UniProtKB/TrEMBL annotation:
InterPro entries, alphabetized: LytR/CpsA/Psr_CW_biosynth, LytR_CpsA_psr
UniProt source species: Micromonospora mirobrigensis
Residue ranges crossing the lipid bilayer per the database entry: 50-71
Region called Disordered, residue ranges: 1-46
Entry annotated with the keyword Transmembrane: yes
UniProt cross-references to Pfam families, sorted A to Z: LytR_cpsA_psr
Protein name: Transcriptional attenuator, LytR family
Domain of life: Bacteria
Protein family: Belongs to the LytR/CpsA/Psr (LCP) family.
Amino acid sequence: MPVETSRRPTFPEPMSASARVPAGPPAQPGGGRTRTGGAPRKRARAKDPLWARLTVIIGAVLMMTSGVAIVGSKAVIGQATGDIAQRNLLGGAGKSEAEGGASLDGPIDLLLLGVDAREQWAADNVRSDSIIVLHIPASHDQAYMISIPRDTEAQIPPFKKSRYRGGTDKINAAFQAGAANGGGWEGGAQLMAQTIKNMTGVSFDGAAIINFGGFKKVIDALGSVRLCVSQDVKSIHMGLVNGKPKYIANAKLDGDKWEPLIHKKGCREMSGALALDFARQRYGLKNSDYDRQQNQQQLIKAMARKATQNGTLTNPVKLQKLTKAAGESLVLDTGGVPVADFIFTMRGVTANDLVMLRTNAGTYNTTASHREALSQTTLDMFKAVKEDKLAEFVFANPNVLSTRK
């Protein structure tokens, strides 16, 4: 593969048939970095669902610590991600050469964008309501998840690809603005990444787009996940038909008699449908989207933990089922580095090393214009991310730790 000296190489057009994205909402991109200590490699872009890629990455990392042969692990990772169409999700928000470029030696910062896409929605009319910055320090032995509130007021810069002129809006609108007028999910991710970089100063090594709908398949491949509900919450999406969960819209269309589905306080195993529904709830929660952020982080951690507890990562049949489900839910960009190398670098991170952090202390920080804003403590937290001093910051500011486990 030819060596590129620039941080984010461009892609020739047209792309080969194997890299093209099928009709319908764009699949999520994937990508890679250079091997540690090597020269930067050309960035491959994949378009697959985001949730899937995140699961593959975390799962593969955990696989490295589970006694599986390293060569076999890389082969599995390569097979699982080999046919993912790849795209540039970061644009100008990728790390510059001065910030480490495509080297995997230093800290690693990933942007994870969750979308709730449905077939009837246009590909350019989707907002990203789940925005997570995943920080891995240079020691590569821990990972921190920081969620940015969807209603945060942001200065969204102009974006030529979608003919967006720039403006002030909720930050989740950045994805929609970048995807409009043919920008697609690639454009949406690029504009979101640039908006966050401008706001926080953090540049990224990679990104992923996760289709939350695809998470159901991933969780079902795991069997279930254990989640803790901190307060009773009534689902606005699903009800119970003869005791079984069903989307309310479908129940109405089918003329079914349904009852409200209540996620009761307490810890329990949840199926893919119930876990996904719980993680999507916002209305009825004490701190609305802030509580939902913590629940979504909890879901990611629960998935990673379950993968190591039920033998999935050491059972070839279970692993194949999991990676297939994941590959249908994600789009990944690993900054020009082969996915296997990227994952191998993070082999010291396990599910128990995923630390969940809160912005704005987990509650509202409303401005005079009735918009949410990042508090000074939160901005200082992102400064610590940029300087790779997050562990010290968390120690000095324990209130940023999530109350979820």
